[in-house]
Fold this sequence. Notes:
The chain crosses the membrane at residues 157-175, 187-209. This protein is mostly helical. Helices cover 55% and strands 5% of the residues. It folds into two domains: 3-148 and 229-254, no CATH class; 151-206. Helix 4 (88-98) runs parallel beside helix 5 (121-146). The longest helix is centred in the middle third of the chain and has 30 residues, at 151-180. The two termini are 28 Å apart. 28% of the residues are buried.
Amino acid sequence: MDPGYISVLIAPILHNEADYTKGNRFYEIEYLKTMPPMRVFGNAVLSLVNKCSTGYWNIMDPTNGFTAIHSTALRMINLDKVAKRYFFESDMLFRLSSIRAVVKDTPMPSVYGEEKSNLRISRVIIDFPSRYLVNFFKRFFYNYILRDISPATLESILGTILTMTGAIYGAYNWINAGITGSPTATGTIMLVALMVILGVQLLLAALAYDINNVPKDPLQTMPALQIIPEPLRGQAFNKVDTFATSSDSYARSAVGMDD
C-alpha cells in the first residue's frame, strides 16, 4: 500500500461524503497488471459475493485493507464482534451496512513486493462462504424484517417460495415421468413454469430495490449520532474513542486541513 494515497483515501471523509473509505484495485486495468491472475479472479468473485452479503453494490475489492473510517461510524461498531484475520475487511463492511454507513471506493494500484500471502485458497473456499451466507441472512433480517417492512420483504419471501416450490414440483414430475414412462400433463408443466417465472421476477424486483437501497447519507452529517448512547458503544468503546480522536487529528493534518 502506497502511503502517498492516504490523502486521497481520507478526502471523502473529510468532505462529509463518506463514513468509510477503502482502496479499489479494480478501478483501472493498469492497476491490475502486477496482481497475479488467480488473485484477480478470486477478488472478482469475492466482490460479487460481498455485494450480496453486505448490500454495498457500489463497492469492489472487498478484501482491500487500505481503509479509513470516521469516528462517528467507528463508535457505533462493536469491534469485539468483527471477524479477525482474513475475513476482517469483509465483515467490517457488513457491520457498516448494519448501521447504514456510507462507504466509498478510492482508486489505487496494486503493489506487490517480495512478500508472500499466507492466505490459502482452501481456507477461502471452506471458511468464507458460510460467513458470507450468515451475514446475508443477518442483513436481510435487520434491514427488511426487524427495522422495516418494505416491498422487497414481500418480493423476497414470495419469490423464494414460488421459485423453490416450482423447481421442486417440476423436478418431482420430471423424475416421475422418467420412471413411469408417461408424459407430464401440459397443465402441470404450465403451472411449474408460471411459478418459476413469477418467482424469479419477484426476486429480480427485490434485487433492484436492494441495489437502490445503498446508504447515501453519511452518519457524520447527522448531529444526533455525534453522541452515541451507552448501549450502542460496545465493550471496545473506550479503545475506539481514543483511536478515533487521534485518527481524526491525523487525517486533517495529512491533507493540510487541520483546524
